[in-house]
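Record 1 of the preview.
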Amino acid sequence: MTIPMFKNTHFRRAAQFASLLALAGAFVAIRAAEKSESAITLRKDEHPVQRGQSDRVSYSDVVSRVSPSVVKITVQAKAKKVEFRDGDGPGMNDPLFRQFFGGHLPEMRQEPMNGLGSGVIISSDGYVVTNNHVVEGADSVTVALADGRELPAKVVGRDPLTDIAVVKVEAKDLPAITFADSSKILAGDRVLAIGNPFGIGETVTSGIVSATGRRVGILNDVHGYEDFIQTDAAINPGNSGGALVDVDGRLIGINTAILSRSGGFQGVGLAVPSNMVGHVADSLVRSGHVVRGFLGVNIQSITPALVDSFNLKTRNGALVAGVTPDSPASRAGLKEGDVITRMNGQEVTDSNNLALAVSGEAPGTKVAFDVLRDGKDLKIEATTGERPGSPHDGNELASSGDDQGVLNGVAVDDLTSETRQQFNLPSNLHGALVTNVDPDSAAARSGISAGDVILEINRHRVESAQDAVKLSEKSDSKKTLLRLWSRGSTLFVVVDESNQGKS
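->
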C-alpha cells in the first residue's frame, strides 16, 4: 500500500545483515489474551512513570541496571544452491542457452550469510525476545551476554505479524528486564534505546516518545497489526530487537524499524509496545504460535467522504466493508455498511483500533458491539473464532486509508471464467470487472484500478457490467459510493467528481 505522506520514503529494519542495511519490514500484532497461567513469568511494574520537573543530568544508573538484560544476537545462514527458473532473466527460455547447460537451467550458489541484531532477556531461565526479521531464515543463532558468554540459542517461535520472535539459551539466573505497562506511555515521555548498532558493541541513545498507536502501513503484505511507539531516540542497523526503556529502566518496547528517506536514521524510530511483546512471547513459548480472535469482517476507517455518504456525525468507528459467509460476524448479524462504534463499552476510534481489540480476545469469547446501521443504533453480540492460519484468510485489516472512486473514465465488463483466472477472483464473486481506468479521472485519483470488481453502487448490488452502467447513470449526485473487491479484500470508496475538470 502506498501512503502519500511517506512518498519517496523507505522503511528500514534496524538489523544489520551481511554488512548491508536491510530495507524495512516491521511487523506488529497482538495475540488472543489467555486466561490460563502464563507460560513465562515476566517481571512487571505497571505504575506510570513519574512526570513533572526533573533535575536529572545523567541516566548512567538506569543504563547500568538495564544493559545486562540487552544481548547481541548473531545469526548464520548456510550456503544454498538456488536454481534459475523460467523468466528469471533475459534469454533463460532460449533453447541454445539451455543446450549450453545440458538442457537444464544452471544453478547458482548462494554464499553463507551472517546477520546481526539485538535481543532482550525476558526471563531468568533463558528466554530472549527479538525481532522475527533478525532470526528468520537463520540456520544457527548465537546470543552474546553482557558477561562475555556466547551461547547457542534455539528459536522457540516466530510471529511475522508482529515481527516478534523468542529464542532460548540454556542458562539460569539471567538478568531479566522489567516490563512497564505500555498503555500508560504518553508522547513526550523520555526514553532510552539500547542495542548493538553496526556490531560495535552495546550503545545507548536517548529521546522522547514522539507518538503512540502509530500505524504506518508496512504490514499489509502479511495483514499484520500495527500499534507502534514512535521515538526520536536514534535506532541504527543492529538495533533491531533491542530495548526501548523509560527513565525507570522498564521495557516499553522492542525497537524494530525506522522511517527514512536516506536509508539512515532521520528521527523516526518504531518499536513494538511491551504489552504486545509480552502477550506474543507468552503465546510463542506456550505453543510455538500466536492465537488470535477472529470475526470474519473486512473493516476500514471512515474518511470525510464516507462521513457524508453514510450521514455520520464523526469519523470515529470502523466501517464494515465485507462479511465472510458462515463467520462469527455473519452469524451475529453484522452486515456490510454497518459502523461499529463501540466494543465491550470501549469507543472504537478507527479500523486498526478495532482489529487490535478483536485479535486480543481469545477464540470463543463473547464480544458486545454498538453498531450504527442506516442511522439506527443496534446492540450486537458475537462470539470470536480463531483466526485462520494463513494471513490472507479472513483479512480483518482491509483498511482503505483515504481511498475514494466512480464510473466516469472507468471501463467495465462482465466476469468470465477467463477473467476470474486472470485476476485470481473467487468463483462466488459477482459484480462488474474494472478493465481500464482513465488516469485523469476521479476514479483513478480514488485508487480504483484494473482488476477491481464493483460490488455495489450507492448501496445497490451490482451483478453485471450493465447493472453498473445503469446504476451510475441514475445518480444525480457528483459523489458516488462504491463497494469494491480489490486485491483480496472488500472496501467502500467514494468518488467525488464535483471538482472534475476544474483547474
